[in-house]
């Protein structure tokens, strides 16, 4: 069972990102402040929750959270500054948008750049330990999935409606056949190397 929060004195926001390992599309991040004693039996790390249940949880979190925000950093910026910096920047952008100023940030993972003077705590696999981080993981994942699905009609050959931009066999094969588009992350070295012909 998830802990509602790490502590009960400071206003606490959970933060998480989605899409770090994808071949295409932005990285998304969310920040969520939950009310005291928030509980929902389906809530967990987004990777452990079925898609239908994630969408149900998104509506519940958006309705019941004391404050929440979601932000993204584009694939072009990921290529410029690297995925770790882009993920942290997306978290900062989400925190910027919260209607309540957090006094403590719970960050999923082990790396973070301090946000202004706000205290933070990095928690490995925190999305499976604390409800506010799990809620952030649900929002980041569902917002990102919806964004990638919206691009599917424009680029159906990559099968993004199913793989959400991850490097599945079908996605890699499509890159080999059609090349990359403006949403691919070129810094990920996903363009197949040309065969060297021996003469």
From TrEMBL:
Q: How is the cofactor bound?
A: Manganese or magnesium. Binds 1 divalent metal ion per monomer in the absence of substrate. May bind a second metal ion after substrate binding.
**At which positions is a divalent metal cation bound?**
16-17, 108
Catalysed reactions, as listed in the record? Endonucleolytic cleavage to 5'-phosphomonoester
- UniProt cross-references to Pfam families, sorted A to Z: RNase_HII
What are the UniProt keywords, alphabetically?
Cytoplasm, Endonuclease, Hydrolase, Manganese, Metal-binding, Nuclease
Its principal location? cytoplasm
Q: Does the keyword Protein biosynthesis apply?
A: no
| Obligatory cofactor(s) | Mg(2+); Mn(2+)
Q: What is the annotated localization of this protein?
A: Cytoplasm
Q: Where is the RNase H type-2 domain?
A: 10-199
- Family designation: Belongs to the RNase HII family.
Q: Which PANTHER family match?
A: RIBONUCLEASE H2 SUBUNIT A, RIBONUCLEASE HII
This chain's function reads: Endonuclease that specifically degrades the RNA of RNA-DNA hybrids.
Q: Which protein is depicted?
A: Ribonuclease HII
Species annotation:
Parasediminibacterium paludis
The organism's taxonomy opens as:
Bacteria, Pseudomonadati, Bacteroidota, Chitinophagia, Chitinophagales
Q: Its encoding gene is what?
A: rnhB
